[in-house]
Amino acid sequence: MNILKIDNVSFSYDKEKLVLKNINANFKTGIIYGIFGRSGAGKTTLLSLLAGLETPSSGIISYKDQDISKINNDKYRSTNMGIVFQSFNLLPHLTALENVILSMNISNIKINDKEKKALALTLLKKVGLDETKAKRKVLQLSGGEQQRVSIARALSYDAEIILADEPTGNLDRDTEEDIINLLTKLAHEENKCVIIISHSEYVKKASDKVYFLANGNLKEAQ
């Protein structure tokens, strides 16, 4: 089933030069997608549109056949979609565990505090962080460990879509492989729709479907 659909979408910041030109794509659960292109090609703009952070100049982006511009974007981002950033975007004064619990609180997940803690520890364990590391402030963790916290946070409200913006850009090769393998498992074993913006050849090889963005056009690799 198509969970996200881009239908003839164009976008411009200044109403003169189009960053994206009448692009189309369908995204399904259970698949990991890689979107590639040179710096400035509009990859992060596209991710912002999919996340509802920007509105298309023309065309429609749909979530389960519903125009996302017509739904509550805060709810959309906090319940249906998890975002993983290159810079992690964690709160440094909180522990890994507290960052994940905070995400649950924002999404208004209907469980009590004890259950939230138990679920957060389970999610952190799933991404490879034991309870000792879960209770450390995030700045006491390595870059790869912080990215694992970011992924656990994205999973904390069981989002069906994971958007990842250069999730391995700041990581060494071995850690990159660990993070991409983790995202691949989420797609293939937990039926998530995983969309990764990247420059990485390793991400390209790991992707089930690859798109290239150039000159405002989005094309699927053949």
Question: Key features?
Answer:
globular; 8 helices; alpha/beta; 10 strands; 4-stranded antiparallel beta sheet; 6-stranded mixed beta sheet; single chain; Rossmann fold; 222 residues
Overview of this protein structure:
By secondary structure, the protein is α/β, with parallel strands linked by helices. The protein has one domain: 3-Layer(aba) Sandwich (Rossmann fold). 37% of the residues lie in helices and 27% in strands. Helix 6 packs parallel to helix 7. The model has no long low-confidence stretch (mean pLDDT 92).
Care to give the gist of this entry?
The protein has eight helices and ten strands. With 222 residues, the chain is an alpha/beta fold.
Helical content (DSSP H or I, runs of 4+) = 25-40%
Structural class: alpha/beta
The fraction of residues assigned to DSSP E strands is: 25-35%
* Number of helical elements: 8
- Kindly provide the name of the CATH class: Alpha Beta
Specify Rg, calculated over alpha carbons.
17 Å
> What is the name of the CATH topology?
Rossmann fold
Termini separation: 22 Å
State the low-pLDDT regions, or none: none
**The CATH architecture:** 3-Layer(aba) Sandwich
User: Mean pLDDT, as a whole number?
Assistant: 92
Largest sheet strand order: 6-7-8-3-9-10
The helix/strand order is: EEEHEEHEHHHHEHEHEE
CATH superfamily: P-loop containing nucleotide triphosphate hydrolases
Task: Summarize the biggest pleated sheet.
Answer: 6 strands, mixed
When the domains are counted, the total is 1
How many strands?
10
Taken from the alpha-carbon principal axes, the silhouette is globular
